[in-house]
Amino acid sequence: MANPVQEHYQKYPYPHYPLIASVRRCDTYALNLEALWTRFNRALPPSEANKILIAGCGTFAPYPWAVANPNVPITALDLSERSLRRARWHCLLHGRRNVAYRCGDLADQETIDEKFGLIDSFGVLHHLENPLAGLKMLERRLVSGGILRVMLYSRYARQEEESIRRAFRFIGVDSPQNARRLLQRAAPGSRLANYLAASDEPVTVSGLADALLHPCVQTYRIDELLEMIVQTGLELLMFAHRGACEDPMEEIERLKIMEKDHRSPGNFVLYLGKNVKQADSSSDSMIMLNPCLESSVSRFKFGTVMIHQRIGIENPQLTYRDRSFLRLFATPVRRSELSRDMAAKVALYKRLFFLSEYS
Question: Is pLDDT of 167 > 70?
Fold first, then answer.
């Protein structure tokens, strides 16, 4: 029996970025395996954790992940051969050769039988018929201490797209061309016209198809999402959507208050862990620079460096003074050697993922 989601992405590989599109390594800092493992386990990753799975990689994700982790084996899994082919070309064009490509369904036990220290499934689970079964399958593919990043649609962040998508399905709109024609003919001030003006997705054929013509979409309120997580052996580590509170319990309460008014800060982005062993700071622990920032804090660079927002909070520009401070940790520094002022700055940069601490 044909898989409608697979057929969709065979027709409309997503996202559509030019093959020449590149990213700076410093902007991939939140994708670095060593920094993420250290953040949540307070230890450097063991050898068995030194593998990454991108579960539902699309056409682009393998490239920035490979930039962030040039020495880590990466498996890129996707239902669509066309998406994988474009992802492969993007990596090869930019000299990234540490990625293995696998066509298959993440919910299929036989697709991948190995385990990983870090799994990314960004914008994927909500396109499964059974997202919970998919989440449990990803859990089984994590080593102990492993980390899973997911993005799932929020009920209230997606309400405009979902109302349009359901209407299009009801009236039989099944091509991006017909969908675009209806959007462009919409009366000013109408829901369709407002969506066209506010969203970037309709700019490309694949973006429009993914947003408004997808055959399988699930959306969640925060309670529904938490209930799904409870049914696995995973624990919530951190929310990473825009404006998220650092404490996940505080963020849950904030989301519940917003949802009472049918509002949302955006789709849910969160990190989940399997048997992570977080520990308190100690005088013997070491502070190290995020490996992706090494070139950005080089003494040979001048002016400011802008690090793009990647974890839901606003990141500062790295001035010369910032880089001088971060450069101190290019070689790990023992916490006991920090002054009180340095320790306060370290706490800030740890929150931003610029620095990590491990025992």
Answer: yes
